Amino acid sequence: MSLDVSPQLLAQAEAGDVDPAAFLDTVRTSLPYAYAMVADLAQDLKSGTAEFADNQVPPPSEAERGQLLRALASDAIRGSLERHFEIKLAFQNCHRVAAFRPGAESTRTYTKFTSQRAQLLNQSPEFRDC
Predict the structure, then answer these.
(1) HSE (side-chain half, CA atoms, 13 Å) at 85
(2) pTM of the predicted model, to two decimals?
(3) pLDDT in tens, 46-105
(4) Cα dihedral sign for 45, 70, 79, 5?
(5) Which of 46, 100, 114, 121 is the most buried (most CB within 10 A)?
(6) What is the 3-state secondary structure of the chain?
């Protein structure tokens, strides 16, 4: 299970709509490494003038790598992070995550970062099992 869901939030989900803030708090507490990385990238992006901010440092352990993969593989989790931090996330390999400004999907920089070419150029043997 990727999230530690409280009985209250589970009951909310079973009854219908889920409070977005409660969901985000569950993400923050369940996947602290992933949440902190996205928060840091968002801060770096907003405090600078670069088109994107990215992480190129591998996670310290497989547990943290798993958090990152779970956060980015889930549309609901990824979307909640993007909405909360007002960013667009892009993901290349098991740790290279980038934060772009909203609407960047049509820019040359974003399309280059998310291209098949960039994906291939950002591979290496140590990423085979990530």
Answers:
(1) 28
(2) 0.88
(3) 999 999 999 988 899 999 999 999 999 999 999 999 999 999 999 887 778 999 999 999
(4) negative
(5) 100
(6) CCCCCCHHHHHHHHHCCCCHHHHHHHHHHHCHHHHHHHHHHHHHHHHCCCCEEECCCCCCCHHHHHHHHHHHHCHHHHHHHHHHHCCEEEECCCCCEEEECCCHHHCHHHHHHCCHHHHHHCCCHHHCCC
Token look-up 């088109």 returns: 51
